[in-house]
């Protein structure tokens, strides 16, 4: 539901910190309302302001596992800046087949075990 302007200024987070389940997420932030933040490797939150004509690309859990951890899942959240404007965001989620076995192409510091995408999805949603 839309956030109304009668909410307190410090209303905080609209969508809490998380990583996406699949491979890649493409996000078109369709207007100039700021809301998306990503976490850097130091744990700081960085605002990802909308830039006309661009997409934000988030790496998901399956791409991270597939690359043996070489590419990390993007931790991100959406904040409510209590603007009187509506924030529009159009995501596209690129995900494996539900029954796909995602086996790392290389083993670095992660297990060489495969992950069934559907099992990962269910575990992520229920925990």
What this model shows, in words?
The chain has 127 residues and is α+β, with helices and mostly antiparallel strands. 13% of the residues lie in helices and 29% in strands. The protein has helices spanning 61-66, 117-126, and strands at 13-18, 24-29, 36-39, 45-47, 56-59, 76-79, 89-94, 101-102, 115-116. It has a four-stranded antiparallel beta sheet, with no helix packed on it. A three-stranded antiparallel beta sheet has the order 5-2-7. Strands 8-9 form a two-stranded antiparallel ribbon. Strand 3 (36-39) and strand 4 form a beta hairpin. It starts with 12 loop residues before the first strand and ends with a helix.
Instruction: Report the average pLDDT across residues.
Output: 84
Low-confidence stretches: none
Number of helices: 2
Helix content: 10-25%
Largest sheet: spatial strand order: 1-6-3-4
Which class of secondary structure composition applies to the elements? alpha+beta
Strand content: 25-35%
Task: Please report the distance between the alpha carbons of the first and last residues.
Answer: 24 Å
Main β-sheet, in a few words? 4 strands, antiparallel
Radius of gyration: 16 Å
- Helix-strand string: EEEEEHEEEEH
- Judging from the principal axes of the Cα atoms, what is the shape? elongated
DSSP, total strands: 9
Q: What's the helix and strand layout?
A:
Blueprint: E1 13-18, E2 24-29, E3 36-39, E4 45-47, E5 56-59, H1 61-66, E6 76-79, E7 89-94, E8 101-102, E9 115-116, H2 117-126
Antiparallel strand pairs: 1-6, 2-5, 2-7, 3-4, 3-6, 8-9
């Amino acid at each position: 539901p839309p956030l109304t302007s009668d909410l307190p200024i410090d209303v905080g987070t609209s969508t809490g910190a998380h990583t996406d389940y699949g491979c890649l997420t493409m996000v078109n932030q369709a207007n100039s309302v700021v809301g998306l933040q990503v976490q850097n490797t130091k744990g700081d939150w960085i605002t990802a302001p909308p830039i006309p004509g661009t997409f934000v690309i988030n790496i998901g859990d399956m791409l991270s596992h597939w690359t043996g951890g070489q590419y990390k899942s993007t931790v991100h959240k959406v904040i409510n800046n209590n603007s009187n404007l509506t924030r529009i965001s159009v995501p596209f989620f690129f995900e494996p087949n539900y029954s796909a076995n995602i086996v790392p192409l290389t083993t670095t510091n992660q297990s060489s075990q495969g992950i069934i995408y559907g099992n990962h999805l269910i575990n992520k949603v229920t925990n």
